[in-house]
Amino acid sequence: MTEGFRPSHPKIEIDDDPGIRAQIEALTGELSQQQLAKWALIIAKKALQYVDNQQKYDRQLRLAIDANELWQVNLVSGYQVRQALARLTKLSATTTSSIGAAALDCVRWAVASADADENALRASDQAIKLVNLTQPNDMVAVTAERQWQYDQLAGLAANIQQGLRRML
């Protein structure tokens, strides 16, 4: 846990499992921005199934995800990611359902994690909002999603530690 860690509250109103969220937030302090962006995109790709049908195969959606992935390996700049993000924001304006909008918001925050690392946690929270919309009043589903998110993040952290040990 990072020194001075104090769990924050989600920026959106959601029914959540605050215990697992606090664990996630503590673990995010141990990872780089690129690693958090990778985690956020894992979450966002799961949310893609809820994007409105007419947007699911939109080129701008794929380009925004690609921009973040390329940024993670230093092949595009943050400016280029922000340009892709702006096009994704325009796509969001055409969404026709609250579920589709929540899914696109999850993707937008994940892509925006290239701009600021705290946006990865916002993508995570947005995925919980999506669960709240698709499975209302189902705390078991919320806890399952949060646990899955934590497991993905912990797996990334473990892989990084294992890779560091191999380098030494």
Automatic annotation (TrEMBL):
Residue ranges occupied by any Imm-5-like domain in the UniProt entry: 28-154
Protein name per Swiss-Prot or TrEMBL: Imm-5-like domain-containing protein
